[in-house]
Structure prediction request, 214 residues.
Amino acid sequence: MTVRVLLADDNALFRDGIVHILAADGRFDVVGEASNGAEAVTAAGRLHPDLILMDLKMPGMGGIEAIRAIRADDLAVPIGVLTMFETHDFVDAALSAGASGYVAKDATPAEFCEAASRLAEGMREVVAIRTGRAAGAADAGSSGVLNRLTERELEVLRMLSTGANTAEMARSLGITTKTLRNHISNTYHQLGIYDRAQAVILAVREGLVDVHSS
Prediction:
């Protein structure tokens, strides 16, 4: 049986990437998405998922408040906190509110799915945050995959993570849309990916962008 997942994160592109990773794994079915805590609480009561993956920093009701509200409704569903470059105190507050464990947003897809699976089984699981790396540092603690890219391609990868459309990205970079598409194609080829959602996941994992700053 597949694990029915409710995913709560305010970054739509990041959610798309997580959906892709979970679907590719084969053990999960994302049955609902939420962009803030209030939506997550409502969806949890309606969908009764097997697992909730919850971002902590969201507009309006944040993740910790949402976790408290879900627990107040006597929902025993495991809740895994999605976190990126957070302090241990902040994560501890989420665990105290009723979270079952947490998964680092810069985990590899295999690490992410394994942690999600263990959380769904009721086991407290922590995927270690790479504490030696600061947000926005592309080279410290990364796998080195970004070393394949030119400076322009790194700029394009950052822009892909902002949610801007093609015309907006080209205008911001001072190039034509045709040139931009060529850069995007080259970037995807160099990284071995094929869509924007994968680009965002990789950029976050490698520390090139902080999803909360875009």
